[in-house]
Amino acid sequence: QDGADWIINGAKMWITNGNLAHIAIVWAQTGDGIQGFIVPTDSAGFKAQEIHKKMSLRASVTSALFFDNVRVPDSARLPNVKGLKGPLGCLTQARYGITWGPIGAAQACLREVLDYTAERILFGRPLASNQAIQLKLADMARRITTAQLLSLQLGRLKDAGKMQPTQVSLAKWNNCRMAIDIARQCRDILGGAGITTEHSAIRHALNLESVITYEGTETVHELVGGRELTGINAF
Ligand SMILES: Cc1cc2nc3c(=O)[nH]c(=O)nc-3n(C[C@H](O)[C@H](O)[C@H](O)COP(=O)(O)OP(=O)(O)OC[C@H]3O[C@@H](n4cnc5c(N)ncnc54)[C@H](O)[C@@H]3O)c2cc1C
Q1: How many CA atoms lie within 13 A of 9 on its CB side?
Q2: CATH 1.20.140.10 spans which residues of the chain?
Q3: Which of 219, 221, 224, 232 maximizes ligand 1 atoms within 8 Å of its Cβ, making it the mutation to test the pocket?
Q4: Which CATH code of 3.30.930.10, 1.20.140.10, 1.25.40.10, 3.30.565.10 fits the domain covering 85-230?
Q5: Cα(13) to centroid of ligand 1, in Å?
Q6: Whose CA is nearest to atom 53 of ligand 1?
Q7: pLDDT digit string (tens) for 10-27?
Q8: Exposed, middle or buried, 78 (CB in 10 Å: 0-12/13-18/19+)?
Q9: Ligand 1 pocket, 91 CB below 6 A?
Q10: How confident is the model over 94-118, as pLDDT tens digits?
């Protein structure tokens, strides 16, 4: 804090749309705990650097943000929240939305291999006529349906104002794990054809590597579950 202003210093990696945004919502450590600030990206001392060489989410811009004595007035401070409650409250809502995305990715992968295994003829019969393939396809449908029901129930709890962060962690963990496993399995069922972008399984699998990491890594969501069960914070 500097008189009526605030001066922000620091850096943050992996910010979606950091190079495109006109404002950044910044959660900063202050003498009075964590507080939120709205920072115009044309402020002096603000720099956004695009991160290149990504193998995942290549259609989305990801940036590193740097703050070098960025000065903002007190009116830029979010007035009604202090501490981790603010950012974590946003994250719980965003993570609920994320539980749905991987379901769509998994559905697209299953749809694609249903078509492919029906058309791919091996030794005079469709690939889909093998029990080993059908067992995998049926198991994918089971896992997708379970994830749909989980997100649907979470949505009902959200509507009723009863959704708990640990429930969101469980669903984010489950649905990302479900989708990345299905995308990789579909990539395998596509054989050599699965390694090209001609088919979408490998693209979904690579994108899901980001989704399983952002908005809380899988490990961290598992640890949230462990804390709920044991009452012990292990992270
Ligand atoms: C494409 C993309 C877009 C993103 N967009 C945004 C964005 O818009 N805004 C934003 O704020 N962030 C964004 N992120 C950041 C994302 O949320 C972080 O990358 C993620 O939270 C992991 O943090 P980290 O990369 O620092 O990994 P680390 O925290 O360094 O973790 C590395 C590994 O260690 C594990 N680990 C960490 N702590 C523990 C522990 N206590 N016990 C056991 N294991 C542990 C993790 O699970 C992980 O496997 C984005 C990331 C990506 C990839």
Answers
A1: 4
A2: 85-230
A3: 219
A4: 1.20.140.10
A5: 9
A6: 210
A7: 999 999 999 999 999 999
A8: middle
A9: no
A10: 999 999 999 999 999 999 999 999 9
